[in-house]
Each structure stands twice: as structure tokens, then as C-alpha cells.
């Protein structure tokens, strides 16, 4: 089975893909939209892309492309601990750095370290942490450093100038697995943490207190919500949809009851996926 992931080689997404699909053929794509497009055109059967970081929040590109461009079912989820390092080229033995390159989220996650260690360095954003590591590897003549992980350091033969430079120790990123059909993934190698159902809800424009009514539909059924987030519909100011994660697998009673109640209120409801979630930190701890 072919599995696409946000590349190049050495990204956190590759680490997540290895944790779930160690025996499958992994194919790197340069951007998140390219991963999704590969599933839609059947170049790969599955794609794994980042959806949320504990420090920086939702990866908006993933969510917006999923909603507005490639409506693919979510068939799995995985959470990965994030450990960032400052990587330099082996030829840069003095650790002199004029520029820091990395993904915007990674730079934001290491803000304190960068302000203390490289206060005058320029920041340049890239598509991924591994792309930044690759850039440093390909430009040994430049005084540049990348914020990336252990896998990238190994893949591109870079020096860990400073280890564990992230500001928060509980930093984690969640990824979703996408497929053209809604068949959920199964995995025996990773620790299953929970089941989740993700819904997209749009509110009626002429219904005061509609969001309160939406939340009540879940509350009285004792369905636990792990996330509720609004995003613009891109149809005009003030038009939003809501992404709601329910800590429950889709059943024949409770979630269908919620959907029927919301539709009776005039809301639009779509299930984006009902799927198992895995935690690679749990698996690593138990190992």
C-alpha cells in the first residue's frame, strides 16, 4: 500500500507515518495540498497530514483544503510528541548563524531559545522542518541553521548544535489519515488511544442562539466534545462553519440523534470521519 506524507524525508509527518505504516511504501510530497491531491487521483491509497499542534493550534492549510478543495474522509488519527533541535552544517564549527530556517510553527515553538541564542538572526519560513534541514545541508557555505527533529538530522547528516530547543515540554502534534473511501485504518503496532467522530456544522443565519442549541444537542446526550473551532466559509464576512470533534465512535443512536436535531434547527451537518486515534508516545513509553 502506498502512503503519502508531507515531506521531504525527515519531517515529523514521516515519523508519524512510520509509526502507523512501518511496512507500507511511504511517498513524500512537498506540500499538504499535494498529499491530498495524490489521494484524490489515486496515486496513493492513504495520506497523512498534520492537523493540530498543542502550542500553535490548528494547521489551517490542512483544514481549509480539506473543506474547500478535497473533501476526503478522515479514516484515522495519530498524535506524536514534538522535540525540536537546532541543526547546523558540520562545516559550521563556530555555530555562527545569521539565518534560522524552518516551518512557521516550529519557529514559533522555539521562540524563547531563538531570542536568547540568536537574537539578531533572520527567520525564513519553509514548507516543513525537513525542507529547512535539506536547505542547510545543501548550503554548507551559508551561516544558517534549521529547527528540525532527530530524523532530519540523521537524514541530512547535520550537527545538533543545540538539543531540545522547544519552549514547552508537552508539545504534541496531531495528524489525520485521509482516504478516498471511508474505510477506517487498523493498526496493531501503535497504541489506540480513543475513537473520534469529526463533524462540520454550519449555522442558520436567522436563528439567534443557534450555537448554544448546537452544543446543547451534544450535552444532554452526554457526548464529550474534545474540540470546537470556527473557520470562515470564504463566502463573505461573518460566514463561518464549525469543526466539532466528539470523543465517540459513530453509533446508531446518539450521533444520528444529534444530526437530526441540528438539521431540525436549520443547521447543515456533515460527518468528516469516524475513526480510531493512536498515540505514538504511549507506544514508545510501553516499549
From TrEMBL:
Gene Ontology biological-process entries: L-phenylalanine biosynthetic process
Annotated catalysed reactions: prephenate + H(+) = 3-phenylpyruvate + CO2 + H2O
Protein name: Prephenate dehydratase
Signal peptide: none
RNA-binding recorded as keyword: no
Cross-referenced SUPFAM superfamilies: ACT-like, Periplasmic binding protein-like II
Limits of the ACT domain: 199-276
Record EC number: 4.2.1.51
Pfam families hit by this protein: ACT, PDT
Amino acid at each position: 500500500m502506498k502512503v503519502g506524507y508531507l515531506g521531504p524525508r525527515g519531517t515529523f509527518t514521516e515519523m508519524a507515518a512510520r509509526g502507523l505504516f512501518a511496512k507500507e511504501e511511504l511517498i513524500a510530497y512537498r506540500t499538504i495540498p499535494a498529499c491530498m491531491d495524490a489521494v484524490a487521483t489515486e496515486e496513493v491509497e492513504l495520506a497523512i497530514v498534520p492537523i493540530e499542534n498543542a502550542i500553535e493550534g490548528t494547521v489551517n492549510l490542512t483544514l481549509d483544503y480539506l473543506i474547500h478543495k478535497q473533501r476526503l474522509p478522515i479514516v484515522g488519527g495519530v498524535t506524536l510528541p514534538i522535540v525540536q533541535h537546532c541543526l547546523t552544517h558540520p562545516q559550521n564549527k563556530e555555530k555562527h548563524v545569521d539565518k534560522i530556517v524552518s516551518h512557521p510553527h516550529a519557529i514559533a515553538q522555539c521562540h524563547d531559545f531563538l531570542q536568547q541564542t540568536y537574537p539578531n538572526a533572520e527567520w525564513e519560513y519553509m514548507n516543513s522542518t525537513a525542507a529547512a534541514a535539506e536547505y542547510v545541508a545543501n548550503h554548507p557555505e551559508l551561516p544558517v541553521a534549521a529547527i528540525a527533529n532527530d530524523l532530519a538530522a540523521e537524514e541530512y547528516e547535520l550537527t545538533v548544535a543545540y538539543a531540545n530547543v522547544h519552549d514547552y515540554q508537552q508539545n504534541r502534534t496531531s495528524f489525520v489519515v485521509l482516504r478516498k473511501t471511508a474505510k477506517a485504518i487498523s493498526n496493531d503496532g501503535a497504541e489506540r488511544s480513543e475513537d473520534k467522530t469529526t463533524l462540520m456544522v454550519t449555522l442558520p443565519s436567522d436563528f439567534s442562539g443557534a450555537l448554544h442549541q448546537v452544543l446543547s444537542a451534544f450535552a444532554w446526550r452526554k457526548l464529550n466534545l474534545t474540540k470546537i473551532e470556527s473557520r470562515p466559509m470564504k463566502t463573505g464576512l461573518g460566514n463561518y462553519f464549525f469543526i466539532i470533534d466528539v470523543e465517540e465512535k459513530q453509533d446508531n443512536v446518539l450521533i444520528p440523534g444529534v444530526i437530526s436535531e441540528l438539521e431540525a434547527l436549520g443547521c447543515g451537518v456533515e460527518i468528516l470521519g469516524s475513526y480510531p486515534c493512536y498515540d505514538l508516545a504511549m507506544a514508545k513509553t510501553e516499549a
